[in-house]
Amino acid sequence: MPNPGRTDGGPADGAVRESIVSELARSVSVEASAGTGKTHLMTDRVMRLARHHGDISRIAVLTFGEAAAAELRRRIRARIMDMPRSGEEGALRRTLAGQLPGACITTIHSFAASMLREYSHIAGIDPSFEVEEQPVGLDELRRMWEEHLADDPGRLFECGRLIGLSGNELPEMALEVSSRPWFSSAGCLTEDGSSPVDWASARLNALEAILSGVPEGDRKGDAYRRVLAPARAFLAGLASEQELRETVDSIGHSGGSAKNWTTVSRSEATVLFKDTVAAVFSAPVSEQFARLVLPFAEKLRRLRADDLSTLSFDEILSRFRDSLEKSDDLRREIARRFRHILVDEFQDTSADQASIFRLIAGSGRGFRKGSVTIVGDPKQSIYAWRQADLELYGDVKKSLEDDREGTLAERITVSFRSSPAIIDLVNAAGPLIFDGRTAFDCGYSGFEPAPGAPAGPKPILVILDDIREGGGRPLPTGDAAAAAAYWCAEHLQSHTGLSTKAMEWAVLLKAGTHIDRLVETLSEAGIACSTTLGREFKARAEIADLAAIISCLLHPGDRRSLIRTLRSPHFGLDDATITTAVMEGLSDWSRPPGSLASSSPAAALACRQLEMLRKASRDLPVADFLQTLLSETAAVPVMAASGRDAIRGLSNLAFLVEQASGGAYPSLLDLLRALSEEAGRTELLEEPSPIAADGTVSVTSIHKSKGLTFENVILIPPLQYTKAGRGDTRLLVRERERRAALRFGRAGDGIRTPMWDALAEIQGRQTLAEARRLVYVALTRARTGLVTFVRRTAWEAAIDEPRFFDEVLTRALRGACEADPGLVEIQEIPCVPPGRGRSRRAGVMPQIPADRPLAALEPTLPLAPESEESARSRAVELGISVHRLLEKIDFADPAAWLCRARESARAGREDASKAFDLAGNLFSAPLPFDIRGARIAGREYPYLRRTPDGFRSRFVDLLAEHGGRLYAIDYKTDDIAAEEVEARAAFYTSKQEGYGQDLADSLGRAVSVWLVFLSPVRCHHVGDFGPGSRLS
């Protein structure tokens, strides 16, 4: 690679690079596009500063990843070792070499941690503090939450609506809030800082003022006026939510005369009315959140503030920032110690990090002259989800550049990475990638190839033909993913003889949705690959089940773990058996009630097995215990017999046994912590994927490829046709304005606080802006070969305003190709699913002889005959599948939804087909109302239930409202004969006497409870319940 610091025959921006390196009097701000040699530039600048000061220990070189820090340290060491060994240079060489081991060339987190340890007497912290992944573990968080609830039973009942909506989510919401000290009152949920009730009242007053100018008799005005009194009564606690909702649902938004609406238009009035009503409905539950959750969040803050011996990764930065803010002595000492701070990847700076830099090197509103060098590229800021703030980067960069006397601001534009062919494509597509106009977007700055760089092959654009014959809806996503996987396998096979170097090939993905299919296809083609993607290990069913049984053994009184364990393939008890055992009083398997042996012998047997397993866990090493567990329970044969991702599940369990054999888990508690706690942040940014072994294809994410270079890259964008966004978001924040919004309940039918829509729109703009930058990062990872996929449906569509990554990519590439058709080589391939006519290269997919039916194939694993436990497990799996389908189904048009879902499901699976059939049966059930026309109030709806162990959240399968009545529907997937339905219904009814009453008490309104058996289709009315008493 040419030396990017030279100007004699070097790059076109050589003079700019030399000025950056040699600047000693001023601070320096550098914008460095992808592949322009910024690491080389930073090394040159560090060495120039070290020579000038004769001291490298006075320079802090900070990066945002350990790999980048290690590479900078390696290069600086190499430069020092290359210095002359004699004369003045030799003396300087010995000085710098002696200082290098203690030089500050590290990550921002490591820098902050080392300063806290060194100046612990000022920071007020234990110098031997340990670093944890999370501030509070999930198990500890839940325990503390239960204690918090028990502190004030009266408060608990006053907040019943909040717990009914979001009970299980509240501890995690409190943990999120606790990391934001400014979020200490419900005023953060409104635009003006007033309480939610005051805000809603003010909105009602504003609406009333507008309506006062609309004459009576105007249809819309009269309708809106009817809501004012009930809304105020609701805010005052004089009317129920049901009464207000009935009033709101009874009015329409049409009608009215335009001439009557002089202050605002009718359409504006509709928006104002809906916003006002939403604010009214959210006000009481927001106040409940402030009463119940915010004090718990403050407890978490105090807990962390008082803990001087452990810090989370985020707390390292916040503690260091707080210490700098509070101590003039600390600021002066660190500023004296480090004359110059160089920050790499400054576009990924968070608010805490920027504050730290300003406190150390600041002067007034800016930085001290000559004190900082920042290097970054706004086009590569892709870590907003880890608090990277591109707006903040712009603010800091502007403050530096505005001080023209104190700052040198330059841009380097020559790429030493990508071939001219790739650079030409990126430059043509760049203006279309970066044509956003929001505060979160950045403009495009082009770059150019290094002098004399070989042109390289044209990038390949693969168009996946996902259009069905005859038109209509595009082919399922899985078909497009399969076609892309097969093309990759064939393309890589045809290039295997060219090179076996490491970093030769990479397949980049934005997400790992279809990673399994890709990896399996490459493996079947004989292509070695390494990946860090795939389904989250700890979220897999077999791992979660293992965590549950270990928790159950360690904590016999943990009822949640006990019930999951009994349901899991380890034991496979059905819901009826578990319900019987619980109603008999089983809450601790180590002390089962005496009547359990006769009422539920299967549960009694499971308790005896758990006792034997607990003894084994005490006597055996972890690895031996795991082998005992897997051999003594039904999990392995059940998984093998199910055929459901069996090989991968068994491999995961074998992997844990292997890890335990190597000493990874000294105790069972260590294993449980590793399995059950959420993955924490081990560094501010994701480290790049490990370099793959020679001849191995790296399959990784765009985020993980940041900072790496591959000879050839294949980019597979998301192949979804629609994206609804994340439905699990519960908290939105705008740090700059210190405002927040909350969602209570499920995404589709929950309650949202007033600023939710505004903050969601801001988040959407941020997400789109980052998607643009992700496209740029992906297109600039390759040196020589670049392949990218697009769907024909997107390629041929008119995408004026892209919304997602794939639309940004497709629109930009199409525009570039229209401007210059010679930029790329276009290949088109059909999206033909495996087994539907696609010809495949031998070895990619094994062929089944035509004269041998599938049923005659021997199983790849020795399968045990299906046991009673296995059958029960399959029944449980079927029930779970049906419930998941009914959680997502479109109640307005269930048949069409099921048809589309069947097309996307894996073909040929009998259990999947049965699940679809059972889900569809709900809509032929003889309920006393048409479920298609009902208002769905909640699916898997949480409510509060009193138990012998205290209050617990429970769930009802479906809440539907029709004709002013509320119905609670419990689905049953029991495989029984028609003549057994009545007895089974009586069994469920007798065992769930308190179900309807608890639900009515929690909701504060009458509810009619029904059981719906899905095979055969039958309905059973359990009863009608009102708050405090049964109605019928």
Overview of the molecule:
- With 1032 residues, this protein is α/β, with parallel strands linked by helices.
- It folds into five domains: 14-129 and 313-415, Rossmann fold; 138-307, no CATH class; 463-534 and 691-830, Rossmann fold, CATH 3.40.50; 537-676, PCRA, domain 4 (Orthogonal Bundle); 869-1030, Lambda Exonuclease, Chain A, CATH 3.90.320.10.
- The protein contains 39 helices and 28 strands.
- The strands form seven sheets. A seven-stranded parallel beta sheet has the order 15-16-14-17-21-13-22, sandwiched between helices.
- Strand 24 and strand 25 form a beta hairpin.
- Helix 5 (108-118) crosses helix 15, helix 11 (196-211) packs antiparallel against helix 12 and helix 20 packs parallel to helix 21.
- The chain is globular and about 100 Å long.
- It starts with 13 loop residues before the first helix and ends with a strand.
Q: In brief, what are we looking at here?
A:
With 1032 residues, the protein is α/β, with parallel strands linked by helices.
Shape: globular
Strand order of the largest sheet: 15-16-14-17-21-13-22
CATH architecture label name of the largest domain: 3-Layer(aba) Sandwich
What Rg is obtained from the alpha carbons, in whole angstroms? 32 Å
CATH topology of the largest domain: Rossmann fold
User: How big a fraction of the residues is strand?
Assistant: 5-15%
Number of domains: 5
CATH superfamily of the largest domain: P-loop containing nucleotide triphosphate hydrolases
Mind describing the biggest β-sheet?
7 strands, parallel
Backbone structural class: alpha/beta
Q: Mean pLDDT, nearest integer? A: 82
Instruction: Give me the oligomer status.
Output: single chain
In the predicted model, the low-confidence regions spanning at least 5 consecutive residues are 1-8, 677-693, 722-726, 833-866
